[in-house]
Amino acid sequence: MVNQSNKVLNTNITKLVNQDYQYGFSTTIEKDIIEKGLSEKTIHLISQKKKETEFLLNFRLKAFKKWKQMAQPEWAYLKFPEINFQNISYYSAPKTQKKLKDLNEVDPELLKTFEKLGISLTEQKRLANVAIDAVFDSVSVVTTFQEELIKYGVIFSSISEAIKEYPDMIEKYLGSVVPIGDNYFSALNSAVFTDGSFCYIPKDTVCPLDLSTYFRINDQQSGQFERTLIISEKNSQVNYLEGCTAPQYDTNQLHAAIVELIALENANIKYSTVQNWYSGNEFGKGGVYNFVTKRGLCSGDNSKISWTQVETGSAITWKYPSCLLVGDKSQGEFYSVALTNNYQQADTGTKMIHIGKDTKSRIISKGISAGHSKNSYRGLVNVTNKALGSRNYSQCDSLLIGDLSNANTFPFISVQNSTTKIEHEASTSKIGEEQIFYFLQRGICLEKAVELMISGFCREIFTELPLEFAAEADKLLTLKLEGSVG
Amino acid sequence: MNSPLLEIKELEVSINENVILKGLDLIVKKGEIHAIMGPNGSGKSTFSKVLAGHPAYSILNGKILFKGTSLLDLEPEERSHLGIFLAFQYPIEIPGVSNEDFLRLAYNSKQKFYNKPEVDPIEFFTIINEKLKLVNMSPSFLSRNLNEGFSGGEKKRNEILQMILLDSELSILDETDSGLDIDALRIISNGINNFMNSEKSIILITHYQRLLDYINPTYVHVMQNGKIIKTGSADLAKELETKGYEWLEK
Hints:
The structure holds two protein chains of two kinds. By secondary structure, chain A is of the alpha/beta class. Chain A has helices spanning 2-17, 40-49, 54-69, 108-116, 146-150, 159-165, 167-173, 184-192, 433-441, 446-462, 467-481, and strands at 31-33, 92-94, 130-136, 139-143, 155-158, 197-201, 210-216, 227-232, 237-245, 252-263, 268-275, 287-298, 304-311, 316-319, 322-325, 331-340, 345-354, 360-369, 374-383, 391-401, 406-415, 421-431. Chain A has one domain (2-481). The radius of gyration of chain A is 22 Å and the shape is globular. Mean pLDDT of chain A is 85; it is low at 1-18. The termini of chain B are far apart. Classes of the chains: A alpha/beta, B alpha/beta.
């Protein structure tokens, strides 16, 4: 009885999920790309190309040394062939040399590319309330609204620019939240990172615009290793958004990023991501390997860091945006929707480390698995003996679509004092044939039915996203599932 | 002349190579209520799902005409728009979707199909409020998730509410009476009787005579082994209640 109906359901589901990836095009552009392979020589070369200081070169070399001594972590619930790190090019940049201040100087091909991605960088059309740093392969091509922001003392630039302009801050904060040797991929990133974004919000300032970075991998052979550093001074506030896409290739591209956030006393950072790297085709060929270390340090009292992520792309996702709650009464939040389809694999979650007194954290994770995909939540709530009066609330919900997908939850909780309160809830539900038939019988078409069920399931997360993103995320999930739900 | 609303001829249906319906014939005209009774496993629920177009079943032979058009090539949602409604035996729970959103979407899907204007949530609230009264449901049902945490009786009432809202021409009620206490049975029967008129037809699938105390069937059919083996008037149901089904076999 089960088999036949499953077959019907799965064909329908496949139809709906397998909507073409609309960002799969690539841009032909003259580029400056270095030879494949990774050695000390490569690092010298990158550092030289970027005209970096002694400090940075040493930072890189130290990281490379560490990395060579480390082994790729195997604890995640992910399966993929060994990555050949010598078969990747570690620097690829559009040939236009210096960082551009004037958009008219930007290669029209590049502008067109971003236009096509729905990110308008030109003066007339750009979003009025969002400043964008556009990163193409290894370098940042343009940052909008820089001059307007500096009037408020807000620094928003590519990290390469910051390394040159604000070396003191870089030396002080780079690697302070995610140490060089934190993990295998952070060591790799620290050795070879090429660009990314830098934000500094001064004391007593509410950043007047949302800041955003758009990452685009274009080249087939190169990896993208970017680094983002956000510093929010005492009593400041910032909203940061991140978007990612990549062309459709049948080989895998490596993306290993680091994001470090620092919130001082009373500061508030909200970091949102919509990740839509190419996820591979319906047979699991191609797609981006996404190994990301994101961590926020709530160093000041009453500070707050909130992560929101909508993860829909990548063949492999390995990512645990975390919070170190050091300041008393500091707060960490993690809101996540991870959707996997076809042969995608995601192992994602968060770490909340409670160190200060009366610290609070909140974790809401929603996993949606369709096709043959694997979707795991992995989380750690660690309350140390000093973190008296701390609280955590975690909720992990999984939604299965069809009968071939896989959902897992690995929550770890460690509490070392007796005045802490922890709550954990979890649920698993399923969009199966009978639910869908119920909608159809009432005259509601498949797409609408799935949209309604998915957006209902994700509602708590979408309300955390900035308005423009929320609508986009809703649409994105439905698109990703088109063809997948029968 | 009253031409048939539904005409089924020699219907044979299987699921996973098990033949469940083995040559079923049935004619339903406007204004008629047909009760289908029969032992467990005789094919009653299969029959209801096949009419609604459930994808798990294969039609091996026969035809189903609804208002003269063959249903076999139509998708479930098209059948719904044409006026076929199935009140499920076990209405499924849909977490995260509010009853109100669901009802409005269903209503608007039909409006759209007939090129009529879709209604906004405020207009819809007025419409649905009227219907709620007919099945004695409180408006608080609207904000709850669809069937989630509903009691057995509430789920069944919610089915009847949807039938009334979509104003279907042919309603198939699959054991709508099972699991209901006497009060709920009375409320639901009232709802059905008020809904019924000379333009509509109902197929009642039931195990028990007691529903037929409230709703008066035009015909009573006995289904066994995938076929209708006996047809009679309301009295047949009473006879079955005392004698069971065994005397009909052979």
